Amino acid sequence: MFDAINLTETTPYILVVDDNPDNTTLLQMILEEEGYRVAIASSGQEALQQMKLELPSLVLLDVMMPEMDGFEVIRRIRRTSRFRGVPIVLITAYDDPFMEHGWRLGADDFIHKPIEPDALIDRIKLCCPQANQQANQTKLQSSWR
């Protein structure tokens, strides 16, 4: 007989930060289907608060948000020692100047809108191999049920 598995401890946790509910719903569906645990933050401030409660395996961060844009969120994450190692993938509809600025601030990768699910998952696997291994394990464990 199999022992009970606590999926919250083994499932990689991705924090999605976007002020557009349609975007967060789409990202959540894609990520959960791949075996990731997802939390949603609708603002930069909410994301920073969420990170204090639980450190994510990776942050998917929209660039263009009101009040605190994605660049300021990166600055604050990289200034906080506990958060520094968390990979950040920026989500943007823009190219060069935005990407270059994001790299300088500490973004690990970018994904362009409109989001292509396979490209999103590939980016996550590249930026966070640990999350990839954990997601595969979680999918396998779920199939045992």
Please tell me about this protein's structure.
By secondary structure, the chain is an alpha/beta fold. The protein has one domain: Response regulator (Rossmann fold). The chain is 50% helix and 17% strand. It is built from 7 helices and 5 strands. The chain has a 5-stranded parallel beta sheet with strand order 2-1-3-4-5, with helices on both faces. α3 packs parallel to α4 and α6 packs across α7. The termini are close together. The N terminus is likely disordered.
* Rg value: 15 Å
What is the level-2 CATH architecture name? Answer: 3-Layer(aba) Sandwich
Order of the strands making up the biggest sheet: 2-1-3-4-5
CATH class: Alpha Beta
Tally of individual helices? 7
Instruction: Specify the structural class.
Output: alpha/beta
Question: Strand portion, in percent?
Answer: 15-25%
| Number of DSSP E strands | 5
Low-confidence stretches: 1-8
**What is the name of the CATH topology?**
Rossmann fold
